[in-house]
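wait is this the right file?? whatever heres the structure
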């Protein structure tokens, strides 16, 4: 009776050993799921699985060791929630040590660490220990795509659950991640890497002296040049990468000194997609930049935008250029001025007026409407910008209306006047003060009667 009981007690271990041998030596995949199911049911513990794998994990043949670690890792991926804290500690030490093993073993080691990065029972300090070991022992970019993705997943998991511990590493964590990402080419991995960089910035991890390095490791992909292969099972589109990278580049003013010259260079390129991406990225940057970041680049930015609107044959480029100008002006309008500070908005608008105002006097020439659109884009950014622009432009347009007698010329001038009056009306309404609008409205009506004044009135009232 006692012998029978003893045999029953060791039977599960014998069965487990058989499953291990079928997986490791027999190259069968099914036993991994069976072992995981048995662990979940309580038939075996993780310790028993490790003991059954003992000879495989110590085998001198790298492929055999790799299969042994692979089995353990596949079980952990399904059973990590069952682990006790002391088990997690021993498993972390085991896997960290195995990062020094043969390159054939590393993929399975990383899968095991991914499972452990999901453990609720992970003791404090071990997330940092794991990442330090990966940064030190693994040349990530020499790994296959799927294994690089595993490393990104480990980092993502720890950033989600162990943020304060990782922040305790200071800028070393940022530098370690830069080394991990440097040279990444697969779009599946880039989407994850871009999200990690965005989180580093938005969650206020220390960048230390590595701001430029972090910018370079991401900006090297700008502008995105990716065409998904036919029947791509992953469904990654070029636009996904563009938006993800843009979110990174436009996430902090600390990138401004490196990013703005790059955007100017790409706007001035011959590639349509590069122009569009650069103008859209500039637009996004203006939401987080201030006068300090823009100051040194305003003349070049304006020159690039003006050239695109004046010369482009693409309506999309023109529209993005006008949107970028509107955002630049709005950004300059938001900044609070010190008493002794230079008024960048005033000087910026003066440059725009200087380059565009004289074209309004030539209603038959091709630059009259591009100039009007640029001025209206700037005027539409803020009440202050609108007042500055309209006070310079409307008197000129009213004067030009009377200087030109041909109906087509007068119609062009009148349409421009209406555009500026509508902007003035918009800002008067938003600022709850209509005195400026009423002044220009009255001047326009008086100047235009009896010819077109009432048409202007009707258009505004609509």
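ok assuming it is, sequence goes like this
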């Amino acid at each position: 009776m006692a012998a029978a009981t003893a045999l029953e007690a060791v039977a599960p271990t014998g069965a487990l050993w058989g499953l291990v041998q079928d997986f490791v030596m027999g190259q069968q995949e099914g036993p991994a799921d069976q072992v995981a199911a048995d662990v979940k049911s309580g038939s075996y513990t993780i310790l028993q699985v490790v003991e059954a794998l003992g000879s495989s994990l110590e085998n001198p043949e790298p492929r055999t060791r790799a299969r042994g670690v692979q089995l353990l890792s596949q079980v952990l991926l399904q059973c990590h929630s069952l682990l006790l804290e002391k088990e997690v500690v021993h498993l972390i030490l085991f896997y960290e040590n195995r990062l020094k093993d043969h390159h054939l073993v590393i993929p399975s080691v990383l899968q095991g660490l991914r499972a452990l990065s999901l453990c609720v029972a992970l003791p404090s300090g071990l997330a940092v220990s794991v990442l330090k070991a990966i940064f030190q022992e693994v040349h990530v970019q020499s790994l296959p795509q799927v294994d690089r993705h595993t490393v990104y997943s480990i980092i993502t998991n720890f950033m989600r659950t162990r943020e304060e511990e990782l922040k305790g590493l200071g800028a070393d964590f940022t530098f370690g991640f830069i080394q991990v990402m440097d040279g990444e080419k697969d779009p599946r991995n880039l989407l994850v890497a871009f999200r990690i960089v965005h989180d580093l910035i938005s969650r206020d991890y220390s960048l230390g002296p590595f701001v430029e390095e972090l910018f370079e490791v991401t900006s090297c992909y700008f502008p995105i040049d990716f065409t998904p292969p036919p029947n791509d099972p992953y469904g990654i589109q070029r636009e996904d990468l563009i938006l993800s990278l843009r979110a990174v580049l436009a996430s902090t003013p600390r990138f401004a000194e490196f990013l703005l010259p790059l955007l100017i260079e790409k706007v001035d390129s011959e590639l349509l997609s590069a122009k569009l991406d650069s103008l859209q990225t500039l637009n996004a940057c203006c939401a987080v930049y201030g006068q300090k970041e823009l100051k040194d680049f305003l003349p070049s930015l304006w020159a690039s935008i003006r050239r695109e609107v004046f010369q482009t044959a693409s309506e999309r480029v023109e529209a993005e250029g006008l949107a970028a100008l509107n955002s630049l002006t709005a950004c300059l309008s938001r900044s609070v001025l010190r008493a002794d500070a230079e008024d960048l908005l005033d000087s910026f608008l003066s440059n725009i007026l200087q380059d565009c105002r004289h074209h309004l006097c030539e209603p038959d020439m091709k630059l009259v409407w591009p100039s009007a659109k640029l001025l209206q884009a700037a005027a539409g950014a803020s009440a202050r910008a609108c007042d500055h622009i309209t006070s310079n432009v409307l008197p000129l347009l009213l004067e030009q209306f009377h200087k030109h007698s041909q109906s087509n010329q007068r119609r062009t001038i009148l349409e421009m006047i209406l555009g500026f009056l509508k902007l003035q009306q918009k800002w008067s309404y938003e600022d709850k003060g209509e005195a400026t609008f009423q002044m220009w409205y009255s001047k326009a009506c008086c100047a235009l009667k009896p010819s077109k004044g009432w048409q202007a009135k009707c258009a505004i009232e609509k």
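Residues 1-12, 456-462 have pLDDT under 50 and may be disordered. so i think its the right one actually
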